Amino acid sequence: MALPPVPLVLRKLFRRRIVLAAAIALTLVVLVSLLAGPLSGLDPNETAVSQRLHGPSVEHLLGTDELGRDLFARIAFGGHSLSIALLTALGSVAGGTLLGLVAGYFRRLDAPVMRVVDAMMSFPDILLAIALVGILGPTMLNVVLALVLVYTPRVARVVRASTLVVRELLFVEAARAVGVSTPRILVRHMLPNLMSPILVQASFIFAYAILAEAALSFLGVGVPPEIPTWGTMVAGSQQYAHQALWIVLFPGLAIVFTALSLQLLGDGIRDLLDPRLRKSM
Amino acid sequence: MNRLEVRHLSTSFDTDDGPVHAVADVSFTIRAGRTTAIVGESGSGKSVTSLTLMRLLPRTTRTQVRGQALFVDRAGRAVDLLTLPEPRMRALRGNEVAMIFQEPMTSLNPVFTVGEQIAESLRLHKRLDRAAARAQALSLLELVEIPAARQRQDEYPHQLSGGMRQRVMIALAMACDPTLLIADEPTTALDVTIQAQILALMRRLQAETGMSILFITHNLGVVAHHADDVAVMYAGRIVEGAPVRPLFAAPLHPYTQGLLACLPGRAKSAGQPRPRRLFAIRGQVSSPLAPPPGCAFEPRCDQAQARCTRAMPALATSGDGRQARCVHVPDTASSTRAA
After folding, report:
1. Touching check for B237 and chain A: CB below 8 Å?
2. Tens digit of pLDDT for each residue in B271-326?
3. Is there a contact between B226 and B212 (Cβ–Cβ < 8 Å)?
4. pTM over 0.80
């Protein structure tokens, strides 16, 4: 990729304070989940029935849940949500880019590919994911698979639309006039010109996937209960919410905080890469 | 020796409103080391001719191509560009036959440095490694007289001016030392001083490398200075073909006569009082979907006769390598005349 040198890009990106704040918040979330073990020194699944539903204290920073498990440790280990989201974003961007590029460039494949994509998009997202996990069984990998299938069509649509624009640009014809083969034109000449919409989609899907995983876990078709994710935490503790608000509040806040940061960061990247907005920044 | 011999080339597109004959029965030759210009107004089929020869017509349209285009490569073998298998055609493109486009602003990829883009062609056709291709790209940029080439090599297209970009396009085209350069209105998007520089550059490169040039333009001034042979196209057909001097001295076809009469300088140099209004050929080009039954130029021709409306005249040969498609031009080589 031929972007200007990194520091300049970052300086432009962070000229808007809110984007800088989002980036810092996200770094914090990632750091905490990476260092979850050593940081809390706690086992997220260790139960202590005598200490159930305790409020925030020095011993338990964010309190304990209905089984006496430390909430901070569980939220920190809930970084699993992040890896699910990351894998989902990578998977659906890869699949969607391939489909969109092929559909946009080869006119003959356009209708067949896009009708399949449309069919997949016609299902409500969460319903499709529930059905898929229901069929495949609730494991972390299957949740990722289901979410990839849900989000791939979105990426495919966006990439196809951009491909239709880029393929008509003269430099593509010029590349063919130099004797470049079709696969090479797609990968070397067109793909770099599609990076901006693709990156933006990736950032949005990352955020959506955290919410979707939470929703799936909440509905009981997410990852198995022994893996702490923010979604399972909200889902498992909802009946105790009236006695101990914090056990719903903190994982919920973690979701909102992370998703919001990602959206803001994605927004910033979009503005940065859009040439029409670049001048005004 | 003829570098390229195009015989009876026809390109038509099937549209929802019926077939459009964009190029019909076009024949011309390009001599080795010489320049043949195709002149015509917008929509006369000159760009379609060049794209057909390069086999770069958009694949989205239903296209029919007939005829022959015999190209003699470096090794002296003759191949038909229109029937060559795609992999061999790809090996020819950018290597033996190169092309430069009208719009230097959009024909370079915005996300690569100009050096990388030139190097790609070298690595593709000459199998050079990265370092060698880079060094060669630099010398090509110097060849096309780009100042501070070493620095420009690592710049992106948007950092260069239009004239500079067209120089890069020429460097890209010259990368593999082509035997035929197809230049599709290479100077139309540039201002006049830059035009002159680019044309001088192409002339110099032609003299140095001995390549042939197919020059597509609507600028008669450029044709007069830079072409050896000229083919004038109207509505998809060649209406007149001749070496450059006799064509400008004594045009045979009424369309060519009209075109030359349109030139502002021409009336003056002929010693006439400067006309108040410039001459214009009346009317406009007929729709390609509903061509007139006879000569395509007949509705706009001041010398039209009744027989002009009946059938398209054949391309008559009238000595000294001249050809014209008009009933007023007698065919001196009657044996070649089509029925």
Report:
1. no
2. 556 656 778 888 888 888 888 888 889 888 888 888 888 888 888 887 778 889 98
3. no
4. no
3-state secondary structure of A70: strand
- Contacting residues of B for A176, CB less than 8 Å apart: 56, 93
Q: Which two tokens stand for residue B180?
A: 């035929």
Tens of pLDDT, residue by residue over B121-156, are: 999 998 999 999 999 999 999 999 899 999 999 988
How far does the CA of residue A178 sit from the closest CA of chain B (Å)?
4
Tokens of A37: 């073990």
Q: Report the 3 state secondary structure along chain B.
A: CEEEEEEEEEEEEEECCEEEEEEEEEEEEEECCCEEEEECCCCCCHHHHHHHHHCCCCCCCEEEEEEEEEEECCCCCEEECCCCCHHHHHHHECCCEEEECCCCCCCCCCCCCHHHHHHHHHHHHCCCCHHHHHHHHHHHHHHCCCCCHHHHCCCCHHHCCHHHHHHHHHHHHHCCCCCEEEEECCCCCCCHHHHHHHHHHHHHHHHHHCCEEEEEECCHHHHHHHCCEEEEEECCEEEEEEEHHHHHHCCCCHHHHHHHHHCHHHHHHCCCCCCCCCCCCCCCCCCCCCCCCCCCCHHHCCCCCHHHHCCCCCCEECCCCCEECCCCCCCCCHHHCCC
